[in-house]
Specification:
The complex is a heterodimer of chains A (100) and B (478). Chain A is 81% helix and 0% strand. Chain A is mainly α and 100 residues long. The longest helix of chain A is centred in the C-terminal third of the chain and has 31 residues. The C terminus of chain A is likely disordered. Chain B folds into 2 domains: 183 residues, no CATH class; 173 residues, TPP-binding domain (Rossmann fold), CATH 3.40.50. Chain B has 19 helices and 6 strands. In chain B, strands 3-2-1-4-5-6 form a 6-stranded parallel sheet. The termini of chain B are far apart.
Protein backbone atom coordinates (compact mmCIF):
# COMPACT_ATOMS: atom_id res chain seq x y z
CA UNK A 1 0.00 0.00 0.00
CA UNK A 2 1.20 3.43 -0.88
CA UNK A 3 1.20 6.27 1.69
CA UNK A 4 -1.47 8.01 -0.43
CA UNK A 5 -3.76 5.00 -0.17
CA UNK A 6 -3.29 4.81 3.60
CA UNK A 7 -4.22 8.49 3.74
CA UNK A 8 -7.37 7.92 1.68
CA UNK A 9 -8.45 5.00 3.85
CA UNK A 10 -7.87 7.06 7.01
CA UNK A 11 -9.95 9.88 5.58
CA UNK A 12 -12.69 7.44 4.57
CA UNK A 13 -12.97 5.79 7.98
CA UNK A 14 -12.97 9.09 9.88
CA UNK A 15 -15.54 10.63 7.53
CA UNK A 16 -17.74 7.56 8.01
CA UNK A 17 -17.83 8.13 11.77
CA UNK A 18 -18.38 11.86 11.41
CA UNK A 19 -21.32 11.16 9.09
CA UNK A 20 -23.07 9.12 11.76
CA UNK A 21 -22.22 11.39 14.69
CA UNK A 22 -23.21 14.60 12.99
CA UNK A 23 -26.90 13.71 12.61
CA UNK A 24 -27.46 11.60 15.72
CA UNK A 25 -30.76 13.23 16.68
CA UNK A 26 -33.04 14.71 14.04
CA UNK A 27 -36.74 15.62 14.49
CA UNK A 28 -39.06 13.90 12.03
CA UNK A 29 -39.99 17.13 10.28
CA UNK A 30 -36.40 17.56 9.15
CA UNK A 31 -35.89 14.07 7.73
CA UNK A 32 -36.83 15.10 4.22
CA UNK A 33 -34.88 18.38 4.04
CA UNK A 34 -31.86 16.63 5.54
CA UNK A 35 -32.05 13.88 2.94
CA UNK A 36 -32.38 16.49 0.22
CA UNK A 37 -29.47 18.54 1.57
CA UNK A 38 -27.13 15.58 1.81
CA UNK A 39 -28.28 14.62 -1.68
CA UNK A 40 -26.87 17.93 -2.89
CA UNK A 41 -23.57 17.29 -1.09
CA UNK A 42 -22.84 14.14 -3.06
CA UNK A 43 -22.98 16.43 -6.08
CA UNK A 44 -19.29 16.95 -5.19
CA UNK A 45 -18.83 14.32 -7.92
CA UNK A 46 -18.90 17.45 -10.13
CA UNK A 47 -15.26 18.02 -9.17
CA UNK A 48 -14.46 14.50 -10.40
CA UNK A 49 -16.44 14.98 -13.58
CA UNK A 50 -14.55 18.19 -14.41
CA UNK A 51 -11.16 16.60 -13.78
CA UNK A 52 -11.92 13.47 -15.82
CA UNK A 53 -13.27 15.52 -18.70
CA UNK A 54 -10.33 17.87 -18.87
CA UNK A 55 -7.87 14.96 -18.81
CA UNK A 56 -9.80 12.96 -21.43
CA UNK A 57 -8.20 11.51 -24.57
CA UNK A 58 -10.40 10.78 -27.54
CA UNK A 59 -14.05 11.43 -28.14
CA UNK A 60 -15.42 8.51 -26.07
CA UNK A 61 -13.83 9.72 -22.85
CA UNK A 62 -14.80 13.29 -23.66
CA UNK A 63 -18.46 12.37 -24.21
CA UNK A 64 -18.57 10.25 -21.05
CA UNK A 65 -17.05 13.11 -19.11
CA UNK A 66 -19.39 15.73 -20.51
CA UNK A 67 -22.47 13.64 -19.72
CA UNK A 68 -21.11 13.24 -16.19
CA UNK A 69 -20.64 17.02 -15.96
CA UNK A 70 -24.26 17.64 -17.00
CA UNK A 71 -25.62 15.04 -14.54
CA UNK A 72 -23.44 16.25 -11.68
CA UNK A 73 -24.44 19.87 -12.29
CA UNK A 74 -28.13 18.93 -12.15
CA UNK A 75 -27.42 17.11 -8.88
CA UNK A 76 -25.65 20.06 -7.28
CA UNK A 77 -27.83 22.93 -8.49
CA UNK A 78 -31.17 21.12 -8.25
CA UNK A 79 -30.25 19.59 -4.89
CA UNK A 80 -29.41 22.85 -3.14
CA UNK A 81 -32.27 24.81 -4.71
CA UNK A 82 -34.94 22.23 -3.87
CA UNK A 83 -33.66 21.93 -0.29
CA UNK A 84 -33.78 25.69 0.12
CA UNK A 85 -37.36 25.71 -1.13
CA UNK A 86 -38.34 23.06 1.40
CA UNK A 87 -36.75 25.00 4.23
CA UNK A 88 -38.19 28.29 3.05
CA UNK A 89 -41.52 26.91 4.19
CA UNK A 90 -40.36 26.98 7.78
CA UNK A 91 -39.89 30.74 7.69
CA UNK A 92 -43.51 31.99 7.89
CA UNK A 93 -44.02 29.93 11.00
CA UNK A 94 -41.22 31.70 12.82
CA UNK A 95 -42.67 35.05 11.82
CA UNK A 96 -46.07 33.90 12.99
CA UNK A 97 -44.57 32.94 16.34
CA UNK A 98 -42.84 36.28 16.64
CA UNK A 99 -46.11 38.08 15.95
CA UNK A 100 -47.86 36.45 18.84
CA UNK B 1 -1.56 35.31 -11.85
CA UNK B 2 -2.23 37.11 -8.62
CA UNK B 3 -3.55 33.99 -6.97
CA UNK B 4 -0.31 32.12 -7.58
CA UNK B 5 1.67 35.10 -6.29
CA UNK B 6 -0.42 35.01 -3.17
CA UNK B 7 0.26 31.32 -2.77
CA UNK B 8 3.97 31.82 -3.37
CA UNK B 9 4.03 34.53 -0.74
CA UNK B 10 2.45 32.18 1.77
CA UNK B 11 4.95 29.47 0.94
CA UNK B 12 2.37 27.08 -0.52
CA UNK B 13 2.38 25.37 -3.89
CA UNK B 14 -0.82 25.56 -5.94
CA UNK B 15 -1.61 21.90 -5.19
CA UNK B 16 -1.20 22.45 -1.48
CA UNK B 17 -3.44 25.52 -1.61
CA UNK B 18 -6.12 23.54 -3.43
CA UNK B 19 -5.88 20.72 -0.90
CA UNK B 20 -6.42 23.18 1.93
CA UNK B 21 -9.45 24.63 0.15
CA UNK B 22 -10.81 21.08 -0.22
CA UNK B 23 -10.32 20.65 3.52
CA UNK B 24 -12.26 23.86 4.11
CA UNK B 25 -15.04 22.57 1.83
CA UNK B 26 -15.17 19.29 3.76
CA UNK B 27 -15.47 21.15 7.05
CA UNK B 28 -18.31 23.26 5.63
CA UNK B 29 -20.11 20.07 4.52
CA UNK B 30 -19.90 18.70 8.05
CA UNK B 31 -21.04 21.96 9.66
CA UNK B 32 -23.85 22.23 7.09
CA UNK B 33 -25.11 18.72 7.88
CA UNK B 34 -25.00 19.52 11.59
CA UNK B 35 -27.06 22.69 11.08
CA UNK B 36 -29.49 20.84 8.82
CA UNK B 37 -30.40 18.50 11.66
CA UNK B 38 -31.92 21.18 13.90
CA UNK B 39 -34.98 23.28 12.97
CA UNK B 40 -33.28 26.57 13.88
CA UNK B 41 -30.26 26.29 11.67
CA UNK B 42 -31.63 24.11 8.89
CA UNK B 43 -31.87 26.71 6.16
CA UNK B 44 -28.49 28.17 7.05
CA UNK B 45 -27.08 24.64 6.98
CA UNK B 46 -28.09 24.18 3.38
CA UNK B 47 -26.35 27.45 2.48
CA UNK B 48 -23.25 26.45 4.44
CA UNK B 49 -23.01 23.21 2.47
CA UNK B 50 -23.58 25.12 -0.77
CA UNK B 51 -20.72 27.48 0.11
CA UNK B 52 -18.51 24.45 0.69
CA UNK B 53 -19.49 23.17 -2.73
CA UNK B 54 -18.69 26.50 -4.36
CA UNK B 55 -15.24 26.58 -2.76
CA UNK B 56 -14.50 23.01 -3.84
CA UNK B 57 -15.60 23.71 -7.42
CA UNK B 58 -13.55 26.91 -7.72
CA UNK B 59 -10.50 25.18 -6.23
CA UNK B 60 -10.82 22.28 -8.66
CA UNK B 61 -10.89 24.68 -11.62
CA UNK B 62 -7.44 26.04 -10.78
CA UNK B 63 -5.70 22.68 -11.22
CA UNK B 64 -7.14 21.46 -14.53
CA UNK B 65 -5.61 22.31 -17.87
CA UNK B 66 -8.15 21.59 -20.56
CA UNK B 67 -7.80 22.67 -24.19
CA UNK B 68 -9.92 25.58 -25.44
CA UNK B 69 -12.42 23.29 -27.13
CA UNK B 70 -12.93 21.31 -23.94
CA UNK B 71 -13.44 24.48 -21.92
CA UNK B 72 -16.28 25.51 -24.20
CA UNK B 73 -17.79 22.01 -24.19
CA UNK B 74 -17.68 21.85 -20.39
CA UNK B 75 -19.13 25.32 -20.09
CA UNK B 76 -22.05 24.29 -22.28
CA UNK B 77 -22.49 21.13 -20.17
CA UNK B 78 -22.53 23.17 -16.96
CA UNK B 79 -25.04 25.64 -18.40
CA UNK B 80 -27.36 22.83 -19.52
CA UNK B 81 -27.10 21.15 -16.12
CA UNK B 82 -27.71 24.39 -14.25
CA UNK B 83 -30.77 25.24 -16.32
CA UNK B 84 -32.29 21.78 -15.96
CA UNK B 85 -31.51 21.59 -12.24
CA UNK B 86 -32.59 25.11 -11.29
CA UNK B 87 -35.73 25.25 -13.42
CA UNK B 88 -37.05 21.88 -12.32
CA UNK B 89 -36.23 22.59 -8.67
CA UNK B 90 -37.98 25.98 -8.85
CA UNK B 91 -41.04 24.76 -10.73
CA UNK B 92 -41.75 21.56 -8.84
CA UNK B 93 -44.87 21.59 -6.68
CA UNK B 94 -44.56 20.89 -2.98
CA UNK B 95 -46.42 17.63 -3.49
CA UNK B 96 -43.86 16.46 -6.04
CA UNK B 97 -40.76 17.16 -3.92
CA UNK B 98 -40.08 13.50 -3.13
CA UNK B 99 -39.75 12.43 -6.74
CA UNK B 100 -37.66 15.52 -7.46
CA UNK B 101 -35.17 14.46 -4.78
CA UNK B 102 -35.19 10.97 -6.30
CA UNK B 103 -34.37 12.41 -9.72
CA UNK B 104 -31.51 14.60 -8.44
CA UNK B 105 -30.15 11.65 -6.53
CA UNK B 106 -30.32 9.38 -9.57
CA UNK B 107 -28.32 11.73 -11.80
CA UNK B 108 -25.68 11.98 -9.08
CA UNK B 109 -25.34 8.20 -9.08
CA UNK B 110 -25.13 8.18 -12.87
CA UNK B 111 -22.41 10.84 -12.79
CA UNK B 112 -20.37 8.84 -10.27
CA UNK B 113 -20.57 5.71 -12.45
CA UNK B 114 -19.59 7.62 -15.61
CA UNK B 115 -16.68 9.41 -13.92
CA UNK B 116 -15.30 6.05 -12.86
CA UNK B 117 -15.76 4.52 -16.31
CA UNK B 118 -14.00 7.54 -17.83
CA UNK B 119 -11.11 7.34 -15.39
CA UNK B 120 -10.78 3.58 -15.97
CA UNK B 121 -10.62 3.89 -19.77
CA UNK B 122 -8.01 6.61 -19.40
CA UNK B 123 -5.74 4.75 -16.99
CA UNK B 124 -6.14 1.26 -18.43
CA UNK B 125 -4.92 2.45 -21.82
CA UNK B 126 -1.80 3.75 -20.05
CA UNK B 127 -1.64 0.41 -18.17
CA UNK B 128 -0.36 2.06 -14.99
CA UNK B 129 -3.29 1.03 -12.88
CA UNK B 130 -3.40 -1.01 -9.73
CA UNK B 131 -5.89 -3.22 -7.99
CA UNK B 132 -7.17 -0.34 -5.85
CA UNK B 133 -8.22 1.55 -8.97
CA UNK B 134 -10.04 -1.50 -10.35
CA UNK B 135 -11.88 -2.21 -7.09
CA UNK B 136 -12.93 1.43 -6.63
CA UNK B 137 -14.09 1.71 -10.23
CA UNK B 138 -16.11 -1.51 -10.08
CA UNK B 139 -17.73 -0.50 -6.78
CA UNK B 140 -18.57 2.98 -8.02
CA UNK B 141 -20.00 1.69 -11.32
CA UNK B 142 -22.17 -0.97 -9.64
CA UNK B 143 -23.54 1.24 -6.85
CA UNK B 144 -23.84 4.36 -9.00
CA UNK B 145 -25.79 2.57 -11.74
CA UNK B 146 -27.99 0.82 -9.18
CA UNK B 147 -28.80 4.18 -7.62
CA UNK B 148 -29.49 5.74 -11.02
CA UNK B 149 -31.94 3.04 -12.16
CA UNK B 150 -33.50 2.61 -8.71
CA UNK B 151 -34.14 6.34 -8.45
CA UNK B 152 -35.68 6.34 -11.92
CA UNK B 153 -38.17 3.65 -10.84
CA UNK B 154 -38.87 5.51 -7.58
CA UNK B 155 -39.51 8.65 -9.61
CA UNK B 156 -41.86 6.79 -11.98
CA UNK B 157 -43.79 5.29 -9.06
CA UNK B 158 -44.26 8.60 -7.26
CA UNK B 159 -45.03 10.52 -10.43
CA UNK B 160 -47.61 7.82 -11.17
CA UNK B 161 -46.00 7.02 -14.50
CA UNK B 162 -46.32 3.43 -13.29
CA UNK B 163 -48.28 1.70 -10.56
CA UNK B 164 -47.27 2.36 -6.97
CA UNK B 165 -48.32 -1.15 -6.03
CA UNK B 166 -45.38 -3.50 -5.39
CA UNK B 167 -44.57 -5.57 -8.46
CA UNK B 168 -43.76 -9.15 -7.63
CA UNK B 169 -43.69 -12.17 -9.87
CA UNK B 170 -42.94 -15.85 -9.68
CA UNK B 171 -39.25 -16.61 -9.58
CA UNK B 172 -38.34 -13.06 -8.61
CA UNK B 173 -35.85 -14.26 -6.00
CA UNK B 174 -34.19 -16.46 -8.59
CA UNK B 175 -33.92 -13.66 -11.14
CA UNK B 176 -32.49 -11.27 -8.54
CA UNK B 177 -30.06 -13.97 -7.45
CA UNK B 178 -28.86 -14.46 -11.02
CA UNK B 179 -28.38 -10.69 -11.47
CA UNK B 180 -26.35 -10.50 -8.25
CA UNK B 181 -24.26 -13.50 -9.23
CA UNK B 182 -23.61 -11.98 -12.65
CA UNK B 183 -22.40 -8.75 -11.06
CA UNK B 184 -20.11 -10.66 -8.73
CA UNK B 185 -18.59 -12.73 -11.55
CA UNK B 186 -17.97 -9.72 -13.78
CA UNK B 187 -16.54 -7.71 -10.89
CA UNK B 188 -14.05 -10.47 -10.06
CA UNK B 189 -13.21 -10.79 -13.73
CA UNK B 190 -12.36 -7.09 -14.06
CA UNK B 191 -10.48 -6.73 -10.79
CA UNK B 192 -8.61 -10.03 -10.88
CA UNK B 193 -8.05 -10.76 -14.52
CA UNK B 194 -9.02 -8.84 -17.61
CA UNK B 195 -9.40 -5.14 -16.73
CA UNK B 196 -11.60 -5.22 -19.81
CA UNK B 197 -13.56 -2.10 -20.70
CA UNK B 198 -16.32 -3.97 -22.60
CA UNK B 199 -16.85 -6.14 -19.51
CA UNK B 200 -17.12 -2.97 -17.42
CA UNK B 201 -19.84 -1.71 -19.75
CA UNK B 202 -21.76 -4.99 -19.39
CA UNK B 203 -21.34 -4.68 -15.61
CA UNK B 204 -22.83 -1.19 -15.75
CA UNK B 205 -25.86 -2.44 -17.68
CA UNK B 206 -26.49 -5.37 -15.33
CA UNK B 207 -26.21 -3.03 -12.35
CA UNK B 208 -28.91 -0.86 -13.89
CA UNK B 209 -31.07 -4.00 -14.02
CA UNK B 210 -30.35 -4.66 -10.36
CA UNK B 211 -31.52 -1.15 -9.50
CA UNK B 212 -34.82 -1.76 -11.31
CA UNK B 213 -35.27 -5.19 -9.73
CA UNK B 214 -34.49 -3.75 -6.28
CA UNK B 215 -37.17 -1.03 -6.32
CA UNK B 216 -39.98 -2.77 -8.30
CA UNK B 217 -41.24 -4.88 -5.38
CA UNK B 218 -41.38 -1.90 -2.98
CA UNK B 219 -44.70 -0.08 -2.53
CA UNK B 220 -45.19 3.60 -3.32
CA UNK B 221 -45.79 4.46 0.34
CA UNK B 222 -42.31 3.26 1.21
CA UNK B 223 -40.55 5.24 -1.51
CA UNK B 224 -39.21 7.96 0.84
CA UNK B 225 -37.22 5.35 2.74
CA UNK B 226 -35.96 3.87 -0.52
CA UNK B 227 -34.93 7.26 -1.87
CA UNK B 228 -33.06 7.95 1.34
CA UNK B 229 -31.24 4.64 1.02
CA UNK B 230 -30.38 5.25 -2.63
CA UNK B 231 -29.12 8.67 -1.58
CA UNK B 232 -26.71 6.95 0.81
CA UNK B 233 -25.70 4.57 -2.01
CA UNK B 234 -24.88 7.45 -4.32
CA UNK B 235 -22.74 8.91 -1.53
CA UNK B 236 -20.75 5.67 -1.33
CA UNK B 237 -20.42 5.54 -5.14
CA UNK B 238 -19.00 9.07 -5.06
CA UNK B 239 -16.57 8.08 -2.31
CA UNK B 240 -15.44 5.11 -4.45
CA UNK B 241 -14.92 7.46 -7.38
CA UNK B 242 -12.81 9.52 -4.98
CA UNK B 243 -10.56 6.51 -4.39
CA UNK B 244 -10.28 5.95 -8.15
CA UNK B 245 -9.37 9.58 -8.82
CA UNK B 246 -7.30 10.05 -5.68
CA UNK B 247 -9.49 12.91 -4.53
CA UNK B 248 -9.87 13.49 -0.80
CA UNK B 249 -12.79 15.89 -1.12
CA UNK B 250 -14.80 13.29 -3.08
CA UNK B 251 -14.01 10.69 -0.42
CA UNK B 252 -15.10 12.96 2.42
CA UNK B 253 -18.24 14.33 0.71
CA UNK B 254 -19.36 10.93 -0.52
CA UNK B 255 -18.66 9.09 2.72
CA UNK B 256 -20.44 11.72 4.84
CA UNK B 257 -23.57 11.26 2.74
CA UNK B 258 -23.10 7.50 2.67
CA UNK B 259 -23.09 7.01 6.43
CA UNK B 260 -25.38 9.86 7.48
CA UNK B 261 -27.82 8.77 4.75
CA UNK B 262 -27.81 5.18 6.00
CA UNK B 263 -28.45 6.39 9.53
CA UNK B 264 -31.23 8.69 8.35
CA UNK B 265 -32.81 5.80 6.43
CA UNK B 266 -32.97 3.78 9.62
CA UNK B 267 -34.52 6.71 11.51
CA UNK B 268 -37.15 7.03 8.80
CA UNK B 269 -38.15 3.39 8.91
CA UNK B 270 -38.17 3.60 12.72
CA UNK B 271 -40.66 6.47 12.46
CA UNK B 272 -42.92 4.10 10.53
CA UNK B 273 -42.50 1.46 13.21
CA UNK B 274 -40.89 -0.92 10.75
CA UNK B 275 -37.50 -2.43 10.26
CA UNK B 276 -35.52 -1.47 7.19
CA UNK B 277 -35.51 -5.02 5.89
CA UNK B 278 -39.30 -5.14 6.25
CA UNK B 279 -39.56 -1.99 4.12
CA UNK B 280 -37.19 -3.29 1.47
CA UNK B 281 -38.13 -6.91 1.14
CA UNK B 282 -41.69 -7.45 2.40
CA UNK B 283 -43.49 -5.97 -0.65
CA UNK B 284 -45.86 -4.12 1.70
CA UNK B 285 -49.01 -2.91 0.01
CA UNK B 286 -49.18 -5.88 -2.31
CA UNK B 287 -52.80 -6.97 -2.47
CA UNK B 288 -52.49 -10.67 -1.84
CA UNK B 289 -54.89 -13.25 -3.23
CA UNK B 290 -56.47 -14.02 0.13
CA UNK B 291 -56.97 -10.46 1.31
CA UNK B 292 -58.45 -9.21 -1.96
CA UNK B 293 -60.82 -12.17 -2.00
CA UNK B 294 -61.73 -11.99 1.68
CA UNK B 295 -61.59 -8.36 2.75
CA UNK B 296 -62.65 -7.05 -0.63
CA UNK B 297 -65.91 -8.96 -0.47
CA UNK B 298 -66.71 -7.96 3.10
CA UNK B 299 -66.02 -4.28 2.53
CA UNK B 300 -68.43 -4.24 -0.37
CA UNK B 301 -71.09 -5.80 1.83
CA UNK B 302 -70.65 -3.19 4.52
CA UNK B 303 -72.37 0.13 4.22
CA UNK B 304 -70.93 3.51 4.98
CA UNK B 305 -72.71 6.57 6.31
CA UNK B 306 -72.16 9.75 4.36
CA UNK B 307 -73.22 13.23 5.43
CA UNK B 308 -73.86 16.63 3.91
CA UNK B 309 -71.72 19.72 4.50
CA UNK B 310 -74.53 21.19 6.64
CA UNK B 311 -74.69 18.16 8.95
CA UNK B 312 -70.96 18.22 9.45
CA UNK B 313 -70.86 22.00 9.80
CA UNK B 314 -73.30 21.83 12.72
CA UNK B 315 -71.44 18.94 14.28
CA UNK B 316 -68.15 20.86 14.13
CA UNK B 317 -69.60 24.16 15.38
CA UNK B 318 -71.12 22.58 18.48
CA UNK B 319 -68.03 20.61 19.38
CA UNK B 320 -65.63 21.56 22.11
CA UNK B 321 -62.59 19.86 20.76
CA UNK B 322 -61.77 19.04 17.15
CA UNK B 323 -58.62 17.27 15.99
CA UNK B 324 -57.72 17.59 12.33
CA UNK B 325 -55.78 14.71 10.80
CA UNK B 326 -54.20 15.87 7.55
CA UNK B 327 -52.83 13.50 4.91
CA UNK B 328 -51.66 13.32 1.35
CA UNK B 329 -55.09 14.25 -0.01
CA UNK B 330 -54.68 17.66 1.64
CA UNK B 331 -51.37 18.14 -0.14
CA UNK B 332 -52.71 17.03 -3.52
CA UNK B 333 -55.68 19.39 -3.29
CA UNK B 334 -53.43 22.23 -2.03
CA UNK B 335 -56.04 22.67 0.68
CA UNK B 336 -53.70 23.89 3.45
CA UNK B 337 -55.05 27.45 3.36
CA UNK B 338 -58.69 26.38 3.44
CA UNK B 339 -58.09 24.00 6.30
CA UNK B 340 -56.55 26.84 8.29
CA UNK B 341 -59.52 29.05 7.44
CA UNK B 342 -61.88 26.37 8.77
CA UNK B 343 -59.79 25.96 11.92
CA UNK B 344 -59.67 29.73 12.54
CA UNK B 345 -63.42 29.99 12.08
CA UNK B 346 -64.03 27.18 14.56
CA UNK B 347 -61.67 28.77 17.07
CA UNK B 348 -63.60 32.03 16.81
CA UNK B 349 -66.67 30.04 17.74
CA UNK B 350 -64.86 28.73 20.80
CA UNK B 351 -63.88 25.32 19.52
CA UNK B 352 -60.45 24.02 20.49
CA UNK B 353 -58.67 22.92 17.32
CA UNK B 354 -55.40 21.05 16.93
CA UNK B 355 -53.71 19.12 14.16
CA UNK B 356 -52.47 15.56 14.63
CA UNK B 357 -49.36 15.03 12.56
CA UNK B 358 -48.40 11.44 11.86
CA UNK B 359 -44.66 11.09 11.26
CA UNK B 360 -45.21 9.66 7.79
CA UNK B 361 -48.41 11.46 6.78
CA UNK B 362 -48.17 12.56 3.17
CA UNK B 363 -45.45 10.98 1.14
CA UNK B 364 -42.46 12.31 3.04
CA UNK B 365 -41.81 12.67 6.75
CA UNK B 366 -42.47 16.30 7.61
CA UNK B 367 -44.62 16.82 4.52
CA UNK B 368 -47.62 18.04 6.56
CA UNK B 369 -45.59 20.37 8.77
CA UNK B 370 -44.14 22.06 5.72
CA UNK B 371 -47.54 22.45 4.05
CA UNK B 372 -49.30 23.77 7.13
CA UNK B 373 -46.44 26.11 7.95
CA UNK B 374 -46.88 27.56 4.49
CA UNK B 375 -50.49 28.37 5.42
CA UNK B 376 -49.32 30.10 8.65
CA UNK B 377 -50.83 27.49 10.93
CA UNK B 378 -49.58 28.21 14.43
CA UNK B 379 -46.73 25.97 15.49
CA UNK B 380 -48.29 25.01 18.83
CA UNK B 381 -51.40 23.68 17.09
CA UNK B 382 -49.36 21.00 15.36
CA UNK B 383 -49.15 17.99 17.63
CA UNK B 384 -46.93 15.01 17.05
CA UNK B 385 -48.40 11.54 17.29
CA UNK B 386 -47.16 10.63 20.79
CA UNK B 387 -48.31 13.97 22.11
CA UNK B 388 -51.88 13.78 20.83
CA UNK B 389 -52.81 10.12 20.72
CA UNK B 390 -54.33 10.14 24.22
CA UNK B 391 -56.35 13.24 23.43
CA UNK B 392 -58.48 11.63 20.73
CA UNK B 393 -60.79 10.07 23.31
CA UNK B 394 -61.51 13.58 24.64
CA UNK B 395 -62.20 14.94 21.16
CA UNK B 396 -65.72 15.43 19.87
CA UNK B 397 -64.66 15.18 16.26
CA UNK B 398 -61.65 13.73 14.49
CA UNK B 399 -61.66 15.44 11.08
CA UNK B 400 -59.65 13.30 8.69
CA UNK B 401 -58.62 15.29 5.62
CA UNK B 402 -57.17 13.11 2.88
CA UNK B 403 -55.37 10.75 5.25
CA UNK B 404 -56.03 7.04 5.29
CA UNK B 405 -53.34 4.53 6.17
CA UNK B 406 -52.15 6.56 9.19
CA UNK B 407 -55.56 6.11 10.87
CA UNK B 408 -56.19 2.54 9.77
CA UNK B 409 -56.96 0.46 12.88
CA UNK B 410 -55.84 -2.66 11.02
CA UNK B 411 -52.31 -1.60 11.98
CA UNK B 412 -53.23 -2.47 15.56
CA UNK B 413 -55.78 -5.22 15.17
CA UNK B 414 -55.07 -7.30 12.09
CA UNK B 415 -51.79 -9.22 12.17
CA UNK B 416 -52.38 -10.20 8.54
CA UNK B 417 -52.42 -6.58 7.38
CA UNK B 418 -49.35 -5.32 5.56
CA UNK B 419 -49.22 -2.25 7.81
CA UNK B 420 -49.61 -4.29 11.02
CA UNK B 421 -47.36 -2.84 13.69
CA UNK B 422 -47.14 0.66 12.25
CA UNK B 423 -48.01 3.19 14.95
CA UNK B 424 -51.20 5.03 13.98
CA UNK B 425 -53.20 8.01 15.17
CA UNK B 426 -56.05 6.88 17.43
CA UNK B 427 -58.73 8.71 15.44
CA UNK B 428 -61.12 5.84 16.14
CA UNK B 429 -61.24 6.92 19.82
CA UNK B 430 -62.94 10.24 19.02
CA UNK B 431 -66.68 10.55 19.66
CA UNK B 432 -67.32 11.31 16.00
CA UNK B 433 -65.17 10.74 12.98
CA UNK B 434 -65.53 12.79 9.83
CA UNK B 435 -63.67 11.07 7.03
CA UNK B 436 -63.06 13.36 4.07
CA UNK B 437 -61.96 11.38 1.05
CA UNK B 438 -62.12 11.57 -2.71
CA UNK B 439 -63.59 8.10 -3.05
CA UNK B 440 -63.80 4.73 -1.36
CA UNK B 441 -60.52 3.84 -3.01
CA UNK B 442 -57.98 2.31 -0.62
CA UNK B 443 -55.04 4.48 0.44
CA UNK B 444 -51.50 4.56 -0.79
CA UNK B 445 -50.62 1.25 0.81
CA UNK B 446 -53.47 -0.33 -1.17
CA UNK B 447 -55.43 -1.68 1.78
CA UNK B 448 -58.98 -1.25 3.03
CA UNK B 449 -59.69 0.89 6.05
CA UNK B 450 -62.27 -0.49 8.47
CA UNK B 451 -62.56 2.94 10.06
CA UNK B 452 -64.75 4.00 7.12
CA UNK B 453 -67.31 1.44 8.20
CA UNK B 454 -67.24 2.43 11.88
CA UNK B 455 -70.75 3.44 13.04
CA UNK B 456 -69.25 6.67 14.47
CA UNK B 457 -67.87 7.63 11.07
CA UNK B 458 -69.46 10.06 8.63
CA UNK B 459 -67.98 9.97 5.14
CA UNK B 460 -67.73 13.21 3.20
CA UNK B 461 -66.70 12.54 -0.38
CA UNK B 462 -64.98 14.99 -2.69
CA UNK B 463 -61.77 16.86 -3.39
CA UNK B 464 -60.32 18.05 -0.07
CA UNK B 465 -60.23 21.71 -1.07
CA UNK B 466 -63.81 21.83 -2.38
CA UNK B 467 -65.13 19.87 0.58
CA UNK B 468 -63.37 22.13 3.07
CA UNK B 469 -64.69 25.22 1.29
CA UNK B 470 -68.21 23.81 1.65
CA UNK B 471 -67.58 23.14 5.34
CA UNK B 472 -66.34 26.70 5.87
CA UNK B 473 -69.57 28.00 4.33
CA UNK B 474 -71.64 25.60 6.45
CA UNK B 475 -69.86 26.55 9.69
CA UNK B 476 -70.36 30.26 8.94
CA UNK B 477 -74.14 29.87 8.89
CA UNK B 478 -74.52 27.44 11.77
Amino acid sequence: MTPELIGYITTFVLAAFVGIEVISKVPTILHTPLMSGSNAIHGIIFVGAISVTSASHGSLQLVLGLIAVVLATINVVGGFVVTDRMLEMFKPRRQAEAKR
Amino acid sequence: MSQINLLAASGLTLDEGVSLLYLLASVLFIVGLKQLSSPKGARQGNLTAALGMLIAVVASLTVIHPSGGKIIAMLVAVIIGTLVGAVSARRVKMTAMPQMVAAFNGVGGGAAALVSVGEFTRLVSGSNHGIVLAISVVFSVVIGSLSFAGSAIAFAKLQELMTGIPITYKGQQLVNGIILLGILVLAVDIVGFTSSIPVLVVLLIISLLLGVAFVLPIGGADMPVVISLLNAFTGLAVAASGFALGSTVLIVGGTLVGTSGTFLTMMMSDAMGRSLSNVLFAAVGKVTESSSGGDGATSQDQSVRSGTAEDIGVLLTYSQKVIIVPGYGLAVAQAQHVVRELADLLEQKGVEVSYAIHPVAGRMPGHMNVLLAEADVKYDQLKEMDEINDEFKLADVALIVGANDVVNPAAKTDPGSPIYGMPILNAEDAKNIVFMKRSMRPGFAGIDNQLMFDPKTIMFFGDAKESLTKLVAAVKVS
